[in-house]
Amino acid sequence: MEMKKRINLELRNRKPAEVKELVLDNCRSDDGKITGLTADFENLEFLSMINVNLLSVSNLPKLNKLRKLELSDNRISGGLEALAEKCPSLTHLNLSGNKIKDLSTLDPLKKLPSLNSVDLFNCEVTMLMDYRESVLELLPQLTYLDGFDADDQEAPDSDPEGLDDDLDDEDEDEEGEEEDEDDEEEEEDCDEDGVVDEGLDDEDDDDEGAEEEEDDDDEDEDDDDSEDEVVDDAAPGQKRKRDVEDDGEEEEEEDDE
Fold first, then answer.
1. Across 202-211, average pLDDT
2. Is the C-alpha dihedral spanning 27, 33, 36, 38 positive or negative?
3. pLDDT digits (tens, 9 = 90+) for 2-17
4. 144-145 and 92-94: which strand pairing?
């Protein structure tokens, strides 16, 4: 894919001024030059053009906020003056795998006061005698060369300060939002279950109450039957008592006669 088309694809319906990171790796440059990249990318902080067959960076647009530039695996042999002119805020520069042979080719990088790290792996210049000492002397503003400082301490992170942190924060925010959504869904499910369970409990209580009332009605009926039995039992006794009284009255009448 041509570099210009790749840039349009990477925009993703955004305006150039809204882009902070642009990766154009493995696309095709036009005659070894940068095409399609303009000064409209005024807020660009990270630019990667790995293996795009670049011969020169002379037509790089003015990118005042660019901090990290990846140019590895190209065919750049000079013309680094353009970097000093167009990218004054540059802190990290990767030129690994290019055609840089002499220390003098790196001399223009002196004009980048914020330049903190340079990578020159697989460049012929690394084969020079006292290569590391010479480059660190030529570019005193450097802290890391090929990932190590003057005391052979490895760089903790080759990315610009804050750039990766910002990207990580965005990922964490998205994950936090997803977790919040999951929590809300779980709470809603719990609420629904709670309402259903409470409704079932109320129905069970009503059924139990109805059964208890029926039992009470049955007991009341039993009590009424018992009272009727007592009345029936007492009735014959009362009848016998009346019969005795009647007999006594008849005997008295006979005596009077």
1. 54
2. positive
3. 999 999 999 999 999 9
4. unpaired
Q: Tokens for 182?
A: 């999951």
Helix locations, the chain, DSSP H: 3-11, 81-86, 131-138, 163-256
Cα–Cα distance for residue pair 85/59, rounded to 1 Å = 11
Structure-token match 């150039």, residue found: 16
Tokens matching residue 47? 């630019």
* Rounded-to-integer distance, Cα 122 and Cα 146, Å: 10
The kind and range of the H/E element at 118 are: strand 117-119
Q: Which amino acid is at 126?
A: T
Residue 92, pLDDT score: 98
Q: Which residue has the tokens 């042999």?
A: 77
Distance separating alpha carbons of residues 49 and 138, to the nearest angstrom: 26
- Give pLDDT, residue 247: 52
φ and ψ of 30, to 5 deg:
-95, 110
Q: What's the rounded Cα separation, in Å, for the pair 68 and 57?
A: 15
Q: Which two tokens stand for residue 79?
A: 């013309």
138: exposed, middle or buried (C-beta count within 10 Å: 0-12, 13-18, 19+)? Answer: middle
